[in-house]
Amino acid sequence: MRDAVEIVEAFKGQLAWTSEERVLDIGCGPGTVTAQVILPILPPDATIIGSDISESMIKFANDEYGGARLKFKQMDIVSKDIWDKWNEETFNKIFSFYCLHWIQDQQ
């Protein structure tokens, strides 16, 4: 988690925030970084969704950290029908700290 903290600290001043930001964290695992690193830098009216391929991680994250501003949803980012489940969702910013290096076919 320390590396995520360092990255957020280094770049948070370069992020322009607007009102009612909607943020996505891809590959959130148990939700710790989403809840303890990303959420605290968001404006008070922002919401964030953490996503992970693992349903058990999503259940844990929702039980541990879920709330009005923070929710967790299962998502497989390599699925061809990824946006079928997310068709109403739009995001102003997307974070991913611990996921993309696991993707074999990054196209």
Automatic annotation (TrEMBL):
Keywords: Methyltransferase, Transferase
Any one GO MF annotation of this record: methyltransferase activity
Domain Methyltransferase: 23-106
Highest taxon in the source lineage: Eukaryota
One GO BP: methylation
PANTHER family: TRANS-ACONITATE 2-METHYLTRANSFERASE, TRANS-ACONITATE 2-METHYLTRANSFERASE-RELATED
Protein name: Methyltransferase domain-containing protein
Annotated organism of origin: Ranatra chinensis
